[in-house]
Each structure stands twice: as C-alpha cells, then as structure tokens.
Amino acid sequence: MQRITELLQGLGSRVTGWIWRLGFAARFFWLTLRHSGTAFRRFYLTIREIYFAGVLSLVIILVSGLFVGMVLGLQGYDTLVRYGSSEALGVLVALSLTKELGPVVAGLLFASRAGSAITAEIGLMKATEQLAAMEMMAVDPIARVVAPRFWAGVVSMPLLAALFSAMGIFGGYLVGVRFIGVDEGSFWSQMQAAVDFQEDILSGIFKSVVFGIAITWIAVFEGYDAPPTAEGVSRATTRTVVTSSLAVLALDFVMTALMFRGI
Amino acid sequence: MMSRKELDLWVGLFVAIGIAALLFLALKVAGQSSFSASHTYQIEAKFDNIGGLKVRAPVKSSGVVVGRVNSVRFDNETFKAVVNMTLDGRFQFPRDSSAKILTSGLLGEQYVGLDAGGDSANLKNGDTLKITQSAVVLENLISQFLYSKAAEPSPGAPDSKAPDSKK
After folding, report:
1. Nearest by CB: B26 against A44, A159, A201
2. What pTM, to 2 d.p., does this model score?
3. What does pLDDT average to over chain B?
C-alpha cells in the first residue's frame, strides 16, 4: 500500500512539474511576443542574431542539402529506371525536398547548430548573472536578449529551408543529368508539371516557419530556464536539441496529416 | 567583433540568396506562370462515369493545360457526375465544345480533354457542356473484348495438326 502511494505521488509530482513548466513556457512565449517591440525598433539587435543563427548555419545547410539531393538522385534513379521512368527523377527529387526533407532536415540541422548555441548563450548569461545585471539597470532582458534571438530564428529558418531545397534539387540535377545522363529537358519539365506552387512549395515554407517558431521558442526558453550552473547549462543545451528535434518531427507529421488531401 | 557594416552586408547577402532560392523554387521548380493571377471562368460538364478523375486534375485542349478541375460531385437527379472546371480566361472555347476524360499514358492520371466545336458564341461563366464522353473503364473494355471473342465462330478449332506433327 505504502509503495503504491509513493509511486502515485511520484507520478503526480512529475506530471504537475511538467505542466507547470509547460505553462511557464507558454507565458514566456507570450512575454517574448509582447516585448518584441525593441527587436524591431532597434533592428540592429535582430540583425546581429540573424548573422549568428542564419549566416553561420549556411555552410552546413548548403553542404548537407547538396549531399541529400545527390543521394536522392542516385537512389531515386536506381528505383525509377526499373520502371523505365527515369525522367521522373526530377519530380521525385523536387517533391520530396520541397514538401518534406527540406523543412525537416533543415529544421533538425538548425536545432542542433543554432538552437543549441542560443540556449548555451542565454544560459551562460544567466549563470554569470548578466541577465540580473540588466534588470538592475532597468533593461528588460526579454526585450533585449530573448526577443531578437527569437525573431532572428523565425526569419532565418524559412530562408535556410528554401536554400536547402534549392541546393538539394541542384544536387539531384548534378547527379541525375550531368552524371547519369537523364534527359535535361524532361527532368525540368516533368518537375514543373508535377510541382504545384501553392500545394507543395508554399506548404513547405509554411512548415519551415512553424519549425522556426518551435525551435527558437524551445531554445530561448531552455536557456532562460536553465539552472545557473555549468551542469545546468549543459543539460539545457542537450534538452534543447532533443526536444526541438522531436518537436520538428511531431509537428511535421501533424501538419502533413492536416494538409494531406489525396482522397 | 565585427563592424556593423560588415554584419549588415553578411545578413543582407544571406537574405538575398534565401529569397533567390525561394524564387528558384517558385519559377524553375514549380514552373509558376501567370495562370492563377489572370482572370478565370468556370464551366460544368456532366459525365456518366468519371473513372478516377481527381480534384485539381488538369483540363487540356490539344495537350495544353487550359484549366483545372475544381470539384466533382454527384447529381442525384440525373445520376451523373458533375465536374466543375476552372478555365484560364485567356482561352475561350465555342459553346458546343465537347469534353472527354482521358488518361495520360497507360497508367497515368486522368484529365479532362476539351475539343473545340464550331459555334460562333463562346462559353461563359457557369455554362454546362452538352457533349461529353465518359472515362474508359478497363474492366468494361476487357469484358466487351471477351464477349466479342466468344461470339466469334473460332476459325482455327479443328486445327489438330500441331500436336500430331510433334510426334
């Protein structure tokens, strides 16, 4: 009996703690949005963060996009050629990149490249009491530190996803047309006939905007909420990568299911 | 730490190539034309059988895409399928044009083919096409073929030479 009560108590305290944290994160999100004025009025702050989140992520996004596209080209050709429809390679590469792989893989890379950096930076600022010092000087740390990073992530993510997709399609073109020798005209024309701007490209961009919001929200919250110790910051950084990666995959499924209209 | 101008330059470059990638996706990959922007009109056609026609399937005339299927519904009074199509306003068709449901390739998806008629008046928004031809259903085709085969008097029936000559 004693054991069961303890077990239930443990479960209860876990669930309450979890819900508390979720509520705190939601209030934090609302606060960030409300204090976003500074991020736009002093746009320089946001530009600096776009540099750190977006520009510095360019290399990894472009290189992995190219390789993902080239692998898609090789594997897709291998399967398509069995059915004598190797010209559909462009369709395969373009659709899988713009609808799914572009936003999702770019989101995962962005979470590990930029999300972790944001968490570590804010967590360290908290640990070294820089945030407290700001409050002493009547500078709102959410407006000065959190909101610019949040908006920088939201702006960078769709651009990075689009670059990833474009680079991947270029990679597929390199392997399919230049290397294997699929006909160039039908590669592009079949792609253009099958890819729809609204349904495929805009839905991919919409996904990447949602991922950008989710990843940076998790990143700034984890940093702000991190215990002000070395161990706390390192744990928060790990949690950011794990939680935001899972969030990207889960949100992707939900959005694909909502957009799915193949009935 | 970088100077402010240098930062602006890098971020500007990043945003510019990001937008260039978006344009590449829109123009080169999706082949976005001015189709959705220009004005359109809607027509309807009734079919006995639409086969596997889907919403957003292309409407083609002479092989060129002139519109898209808007909706497919079942009319419970005539027991026919009513296909609503949106056509590009740049393309006008005579009122007695006919529509049929075709298949691209052997296993490809189905689309609506428009054949221009000879009437001097053109189709207007909300018009219904009079002449339509249903989709070819493979099962019906096969059964027709089998029936016509069975009805034939089978000319080579008493031909028993082949097994004999083997001996």
Report:
1. A201
2. 0.74
3. 81
